[in-house]
Amino acid sequence: MARIIAGTHKGRRLAAVPGEGTRPTSDRVKESLFSRLEGYDAIGDAVVVDLFAGSGALGLEALSRGARRAELVDRAEPALRTLRRNAALFDAGAVTVQKSEALRHLRRREGEPIELLFLDPPYAFTEQQLAEVLAAAVPQLHPAATVVVERESRSPEPQWPAGLERFQDRAYGTTRLWFAEPA
């Protein structure tokens, strides 16, 4: 069972998405990721979008650490049930759960620019599909946004669209994180 590692909800347990096909972010990777994000000053008062949210662990961790609002997006019913359950542990005004494919969500999204974007697509998600989602994200991003892509460590580097460039990447066992920002 996942948990919130730090912040106002530290120690709170989160329900996991039942079944196969999900790849929860380990506590070790999550701790390293959020340590970096705090070093970049990317969390405080941020509007966060967690695509392919699964249990919502990344978006909810950001809320616990001071993000203003989190949009948790997934299309799978088991994930949505889990997202709603986990989101209920937080202030209702701070978190929303959206049933949508990532690309469709970004193309239809309205509201404040995204300041912190998490993308942790499923194994079967192709590099081309990821490139399309990243391209759709560019017009939604705040000029000082941080984008985090989580993939299996053997996956190739994402194809960064015009307007987005990688500034760092890190591998943690079987997981690789890429960090990007608006160009």
TrEMBL record:
CDD domains: AdoMet_MTases (cd02440). Keywords: Methyltransferase, Transferase. Pfam families: Cons_hypoth95. It comes from the Bacteria. Gene3D superfamilies: Vaccinia Virus protein VP39 (3.40.50.150). InterPro entries: RNA_MeTrfase_RsmD (IPR004398), SAM-dependent_MTases_sf (IPR029063). This is 16S rRNA (Guanine(966)-N(2))-methyltransferase RsmD. It comes from Nesterenkonia aethiopica. The gene is rsmD.
